[in-house]
């Protein structure tokens, strides 16, 4: 292999893709609309809120030209509600993602949904929750009321969900299906190595068993095929 | 002096820390100390005190009621003794560690016990089984003290934080942590960190590490005045006189100081104290201060207050020393009355406070209890304040929503008081004047103006103020700040300049001119930038006149004065208009370009309150647009703010939380108020779990900008909170929340959603149940249509109204076309919904088509196509008829102005 990179996106790449997300800022300086390849940015007039792409928001924040309004799901209260749901053994699966808007269509997928703006739903984690949360905490910690609590909750949530993903691989052993609905982009990226490894391992084990079964079938001449299958299932 | 001679120490106990307490009726004085005896002194008798011998050793605290007293000891017991039999009644509560302090609620029912344990126990003195535990503090507690009403308990912890608990609820509730006020002291240290509640109930005081005694208001927990420069060592004891007019304090350098509450000046210092005073108590009625020291002695200091100031002690309740007392302030601040602590529970307290500031009244006097208030009618201020319904008082947990229900507050706090049977002639209730965008004092700071350009705030520095002007757009203008000897109390900020007004001063202008003559009220305009060297100007108002409200537009300065004049100046200080306001007293004013809007108290309405009336004048053309028309408010609502939007339409926000705009105001007598948003019905409040209020700032780009206030605050705090924005939503139907069906369905569907607040609605779209969805969509479309129709009407006004058309006509025309198209688009979408409903809703669908303004003539065509697509040929035919008729008339949608 020329490029020894694992398959799929690396975390850095996932973080890069999430910079397309729109976030709400309160500008502190006027800025005319910019005509960019990716679209026109809104004209910024302080103190009116505006939704801009995360990369632009971070740029403006670093230059102290704007304050970022954390999305509602990134407030300690909503994070702890989600965490409660995640750690509740009675609830299966992961916390729900924000619902698609009514007038759906092709544009109703993450980067085009306002899932990280100030009017995003507060009780659902969007696809890029971990990346956006980390980036905002890193660049705009002063715009949070209680950044430490948010940091702690994000970490807890990350660990709780990570454990769920790993635990889910047990189902794969029995040939079951594990539902990853609601798992964020970064979580998929970071658990990809592990899950792929597990599946590979399972396949290898399965392959040797398969081999053994085939040999057995050949010996018995196809009559004991059903029995052989039963053995496999056990 | 003979008085001094009588003062002698009475060796009450073995040398060591000694404490005392008066009974509330003042007849007896109880002291406890190191030895195992408790002594009960009779006031006014020099006879030997009664000894109670069957008690614990080394008692550290004592509190008394008329019938019994409690003493806490180092062995951890709190014992109850009867004052009738002078004997031990029994052990009230037992702690594992030494007891440090006991406080008794004013009714004597509950005793708070602080020991070296981490929790404070609040024990019922009748039933010792009933114990509340206060657990929020992380370290042992040194002092506890109840407020005058007995509902709050201040706990001075050894970590240097004061914890304020509310005991009104079943489970004690931590209301507030006050950090940085007291020093962290060990529980057995001699210096004190005790909180003393001022008898008027609005303030606490506590010794600070800097050896001052700092007063803190209890409604916003801001620091108020302090008793400074009296002590050179840590304060060991302090006590308010029973009426709050005097403060006595003692320090470790063996000084005993008597302060005047009002001026915070030292009235008298006693340097001849023999040993460090550890506890002191005023006699409840007489001029006696008793104190005990750390040497086992008791001093009963009769005639403690010198004769020349003893009149202070005879006063009835004196107000706590606030920097800016919300009750004593002259009118002129936005919604100031809401600071008041009035609700059912605190009615008595509130009445006391009112009494405190306005007239002599003895605490618990008969006329207070009966609620006879002979000054009530003439007291206009009080009237209005009460009317606001007492939200305020942080810690006094009233929801902001309740705060707005002013009739409610009116009823439960004051109803019976209002029925003054022998009151003087009835007087109408007038609306107080206010300056839009300003707040009352909060501690020593207040906002003079908050709008979308920036904020102006001022800090009281005793001799002068310092004013800071901040801009949102930092690149546009630099923030500036200046020292203000004139004590400006009103300000306006625009993109071009800043206008200030100061009231007349009696003693000749702060530090400036030292003349004894009074200085008249003054206006000061300061442009942000200019091409001449100095363009700021000051102008004085005639003597005796002061500014009630000021306004600044791009071209004029407007002042409404106490003499009922409206004075209009140009931006260079040239007076262009002076005229009498027709309705007076004035309430407020606002200005935008050439338009001046003034609001005054008009004739008395049916509800006994004066109706607010407004006039709008075009100064440049010298025309009156609206003459003394009524400011329509909701039932019981008061005007909270008046402002022009960026498009130049007048908006009002009232205390019922409704934002309204004035439509067709350029044509005389055509104006009407249209509600655009009712914040009480916002989806975010639908869950009922949030209590917040909205402090209006501005309307720009057809959104309402406000500051969200939480926890019963009435005004924004420092530092300035972020602005929030809300879209307009006409109050058409109950908030869309009742789609509870959808929410429960979703829950049943396995998604155990936290389902918080209004966001359930955002998420609603996801599920398949079409019915509520469609209704919601139709509702949203109706909103869109109405809002755009409204915008269309506003823009049409702007364009047909002659002035102002010149500058913005191109943009306005474009906006007009867009609004019209958007409105039609919403109708078209609604039509599609109706068509889906089938043939029987055809009439309604046709009506929608008739509503279309259809500037281009294509909308009706499209409507016909929509009807065709749904196979409704009859409807299609009718729509085409409409189209033909319109084409014939050649007029498009002329008479369907919505």
UniProtKB/TrEMBL annotation, chain A:
Residues 117-205 form the GINS subunit domain. It comes from the Eukaryota. GO terms for biological process: chromosome segregation; DNA replication; double-strand break repair via break-induced replication. Residues 10-69 form the DNA replication complex GINS protein PSF2 N-terminal domain. Keywords: Chromosome partition, DNA replication, Nucleus. It holds the Pfam family Sld5. It is found in: Nucleus. Residues 217-234 have a biased composition (Acidic residues). One of its GO terms (cellular component) is GINS complex. InterPro entries: GINS_A, GINS_bundle-like_dom_sf, GINS_Psf2, PSF2_N. Transmembrane segments: none annotated. The keyword Amino-acid biosynthesis does not apply. Signal peptide: none annotated. Residues 207-234 are annotated as: Disordered. The GINS complex plays an essential role in the initiation of DNA replication. Has a role in chromosome segregation. Belongs to the GINS2/PSF2 family. Component of the GINS complex. This is DNA replication complex GINS protein PSF2.
UniProtKB/TrEMBL annotation, chain B:
One of its GO terms (biological process) is DNA-templated DNA replication. Residues 794-887 form the WDHD1/CFT4 helical bundle domain. It is found in: Nucleus. It comes from Lineolata rhizophorae. Residues 10-298 form the WDHD1 first WD40 domain. PROSITE patterns: WD_REPEATS_1, WD_REPEATS_2, WD_REPEATS_REGION. SUPFAM superfamilies: WD40 repeat-like. One of its GO terms (cellular component) is nuclear replication fork. Residues 752-765 have a biased composition (Acidic residues). The keyword 4Fe-4S does not apply. This is WD40-repeat-containing domain protein. SMART domains: WD40 (SM00320). Keywords: Nucleus, Repeat, WD repeat. Pfam families: Ctf4_C, Mcl1_mid, WD40_WDHD1_1st. Residues 345-364, 729-773 are annotated as: Disordered. WD repeats lie at residues 228-269. Residues 433-732 form the WDHD1/CFT4 second beta-propeller domain. GO terms for molecular function: chromatin binding.
